[in-house]
Amino acid sequence: MIRPTRTIFTTTVIGCLLIAVFAAMAIHWVPSGPAAAHDQLISSTPTASEELDASPDEVTLEYSAEVMTMGAELRLTDSAGKQYSVDEAKFEGTRVVAGISEDLPDAAYSLAWRVVSSDGHPISGVVPFTVGDAPKASAEDTSAESSAPSQSAQPASEGADNAPSFPSWVRPVLVAVIGMGLAFGIFAFVTRTRKQRHND
pLDDT tens digits, residue range 34-90? Predict the structure, then answer.
């Protein structure tokens, strides 16, 4: 006949091991951090597909958070693929500003940008606009002709933004649960074994 204490002990050990196993499986499926943490371009000057009467003096890109002050690239090209000079980018809070020192002739343009998000991931995109009497620019028309690091008008990280997001504390908690479950199971097993030997 199985003693009740032994049954309780066995059930407890098995329960702890199952908790550890399920926690380990959960860690495999939980991302290590928020998947939608990348910054995004929320506005620009000129705006996307804006039709300007005259050449702009500068371009401004505003993001959802302060991007890193390194690795920023701005490239301005027209519909024929000619590149125009853009001053070095300046960081003003959540905005990235760069002057245009030369007058842009009437044409369709694409401002291709690439910056490093505050979470360390690079993001990029294209802002199309036109100057003067020129056919209206669009992201689809200009992205393929641009020599920018990205060929999309959307941030390069957009695909990751659709993934489920989990708080950053979930993974450490699951690790702690695994450790506690294994430790308790081993401790209970060793204690029970020693007690049996002592009784024998």
Answer: 445 689 999 999 999 999 999 999 999 999 999 999 989 999 999 999 999 999 999
Residue showing tokens 């028309």: 141
Q: Do 142 and 94 fall into the same domain?
A: yes
Residue 140 has pLDDT above 50, yes or no: yes
Task: Please tell me whether residues 149 and 188 are part of one structural domain.
Answer: no
Q: Could you give the number of structural domains in the chain?
A: 2
My answer on whether 105 and 77 are in the same domain is: yes
Give yes or no: residues 21 and 92 share one domain. Answer: no
Opening angle at CA 154, ends 148 and 158, nearest 5: 120
Cα distances from 39 to residues 31, 124, 144, 150, 157, in angstroms, run 18, 10, 24, 16, 9
Measured distance CA(181)–CA(175) in Å, rounded? 10
Per-residue pLDDT tens over the stretch 146-170 = 333 333 334 333 333 444 445 555 6
pLDDT, tens digit, for every residue of 4-13? 556 665 666 6
| DSSP 3-state of 93 | coil
Structural domain range at position 172: 4-33+166-199
Tokens describing residue 180: 């506690």
CB contact at 8 A, 83 and 75: yes
What's the token pair of residue 153?
A: 């008008």
Same domain, yes or no: 128 and 97: yes
